[in-house]
Each structure stands twice: as structure tokens, then as C-alpha cells.
């Protein structure tokens, strides 16, 4: 019964796609309107092969399509790559050595081909309203970034911060999106002395509710 219903749906779908009335289809198949209506409603359960071929030709498709023999099978989903969600990162500590793993997130295989990634759970409200407390950001590991990029940077070897990067001739600024927080301005000698180190660039936000 389910197979009959599927054939009926495909016949009706093609007729409507071609904007054919029952009379249009009758003219193209030399079948009566009432017969075609009965095929489309499933009142006639058996569709003879010769009628199937005529009907498929009129509907500009194939008997195999109407019968469901050549339906495209859904491709299997690509496997994802799991990356750790960290609660903290610090300067000088390799990502793979950090044991403070809270969870795991998944990125695509294509994405994983373009670098090393980790995820970081954001603490605090300095990046609201765009990035909120407990949101997770996906970070590509890199030691430099462009103006305007949101980066993960470590200062004084302490836990890293998530800020927008602004470069100047004599230094950089790490800027919060929340206007209640003042930017952190750092001269070149401070960058080397503290030290300040970019750990990665935020490439994706995964908000948590």
C-alpha cells in the first residue's frame, strides 16, 4: 500500500511541476481524464507497464522514477572531528598538554584540514552581547592575526582572554565588545616583556542556552 501511495505522489508531483491539467495529460497519453484521476488518487492499484511507459513519457520522466526504482539514496554524513572544549588556556602551555577538558565539540573534516583547533568556554561578560558567559568558541591555533579579528591572547602567562585585536604602529589593543570594559593597550616593549602572546583566532561561536 505504501508503494502505491509513493507512485501516486510521484505522478501528481510531476503533473503539478509541469503545470498540466488532467485534460493536458489526457491529450498527451490518449487516456481518459477519469482514468488518470483514478491513477493519481490510487483508486487503480495496478499500473500496466505499457501505461506506465506512456505516462512517464508524457510527464517527461522515466518509468523507474515513477516506480521509485532510481531514487537517489541519501549520502552518508561526513564524519566530524572532535576537538576538546577547554576551561582555560595559558601562555607557554601546549594545547595538547592541557588537562582541563570540559567537553568536546565537533568540526568538519574539511575544516580540520586547515589547521589545529580547540574550543574554549568563555567566562564573564566582557564580550557581550556577541559572545556571552558559558558560550563556546572554536579557535584555530595561530600566533598572529589581522586587525579586527577576535583572538585568544595570553598576558603575563596567565589564563588567556578573548578580545578583538587592533594593531597600531607602536603596539596593539585588546578590545572588549562590552563597552563597560576598557581596552587593554600594550606597547611593543610590553608585548615582549609581559609577555603577550596570541594563541589563536576565533573562527566560530557556538552559543549555549
UniProtKB/TrEMBL annotation:
Residue span(s) of domain HTH cro/C1-type: 11-66
Protein origin, superkingdom: Bacteria
Cleaved signal peptide residues: none
InterPro entries per the UniProt record, alphabetical: Cro/C1-type_HTH, Lambda_DNA-bd_dom_sf, LexA-like, LexA/Signal_pep-like_sf, LexA_repressor, Peptidase_S24_S26A/B/C
Pfam families linked: HTH_3, Peptidase_S24
Gene3D superfamilies given in the database record: lambda repressor-like DNA-binding domains (1.10.260.40), Umud Fragment, subunit A (2.10.109.10)
Protein name as catalogued: Helix-turn-helix domain-containing protein
Amino acid at each position: 500500500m505504501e508503494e502505491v501511495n509513493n507512485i501516486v505522489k510521484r505522478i501528481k508531483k510531476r503533473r503539478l511541476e509541469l503545470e498540466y491539467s488532467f485534460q493536458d495529460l489526457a491529450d498527451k497519453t490518449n487516456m481518459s481524464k477519469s482514468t488518470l484521476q483514478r491513477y493519481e488518487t490510487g483508486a487503480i492499484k495496478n499500473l500496466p507497464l505499457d501505461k506506465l511507459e506512456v505516462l512517464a513519457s508524457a510527464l517527461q520522466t522515466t518509468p523507474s522514477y515513477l516506480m521509485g526504482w532510481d531514487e537517489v539514496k541519501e549520502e552518508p554524513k561526513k564524519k566530524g572531528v572532535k576537538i576538546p572544549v577547554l576551561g582555560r588556556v595559558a601562555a607557554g602551555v601546549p594545547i595538547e598538554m592541557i588537562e582541563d577538558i570540559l567537553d568536546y565539540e565537533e568540526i568538519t573534516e574539511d575544516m580540520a584540514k586547515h589547521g589545529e583547533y580547540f574550543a574554549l568556554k568563555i567566562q564573564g561578560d566582557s564580550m557581550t552581547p556577541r559572545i556571552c558567559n558559558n558560550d563556546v568558541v572554536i579557535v584555530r591555533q595561530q600566533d598572529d592575526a589581522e586587525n579586527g579579528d577576535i583572538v585568544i591572547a595570553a598576558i603575563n602567562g596567565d589564563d588567556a582572554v578573548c578580545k578583538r585585536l587592533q594593531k597600531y604602529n607602536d603596539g596593539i589593543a585588546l578590545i572588549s565588545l562590552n563597552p563597560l570594559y576598557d581596552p587593554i593597550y600594550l606597547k611593543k616593549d610590553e608585548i615582549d616583556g609581559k609577555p603577550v602572546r596570541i594563541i589563536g583566532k576565533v573562527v566560530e561561536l557556538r552559543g549555549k542556552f
